[in-house]
Amino acid sequence: MYQKGIIWNNDVPKWTLQRRIFQSGLGSNVREKAFEVATEKTRQEINRIKATARDNNTVPTIDLLNILRHSTLAVTLDVALGIQLDLERSQHLIDSIVEYFKAWEFFLMKPRFIWSLFPLRLYHHKKSISRLQELIRNLVSTLNKQSAPFISQLHENGLTIDEINQCVLEMVLAGTDTSSVSLYYTFILLTENEEIQNQLLDDSRDDSFLESVLRESMRIMPV
């Protein structure tokens, strides 16, 4: 991570270059595609829930955060990398992302001298980091360099393979987990405010109020 992506990089020229790549890779020209992917993925998740309820003849318990993670991961992979994964591979990647963030919390929040006091946890978190890094390396190795603006610019601007891998990892992390957690807490807040719920339903054909709610959700940043 150190000096390779944009999260932990104090090399100003490199950081500036990679930040520009992130911004251009998520510009206005890809928003329409992101909307289409998000709509289709949400429809798939709803149909899957309905099918589960129908097959089991019961109301299933829904893991809303996991559903949102599947949606945000699908958008990130399609828009930033130009690929799609099946449900099983997506879930494996999501689980690895969640474990990576747990490791991140351990290493960033606890002083270094404390790490050795929890050898099993230390081992587990190191494995979690290595697992996601390996998944990303394997993913990048299969990508078409021209599959999406983000990945093509990473290759065209002279980044090393380690820098490319780290940038892809950070895009997947932020696009999947940060976005889904922000949306999750937005839904939680909506359940506590019936008036706004009803207004969203009444104005479902009017994007202006929905856009306002989504913009407000950007204030809820988990990291």
Automatic annotation (TrEMBL):
> InterPro entries, from UniProt?
Cyt_P450, Cyt_P450_sf
Molecular function (Gene Ontology), one example: iron ion binding
Q: Name one Pfam family in it.
A: p450
For whether the record's keyword set contains Protease, the answer is no
Task: List keywords of the entry alphabetically.
Answer: Iron, Metal-binding, Oxidoreductase
Gene3D superfamilies, sorted = Cytochrome P450
Is rRNA-binding included in the keywords of this UniProt record?
no
The organism's place on the tree of life at top rank: Eukaryota
**Family per similarity comment:** Belongs to the cytochrome P450 family.
**What protein does this entry describe?**
8051_t:CDS:1
Q: Which organism is it from?
A: Funneliformis mosseae (Endomycorrhizal fungus)
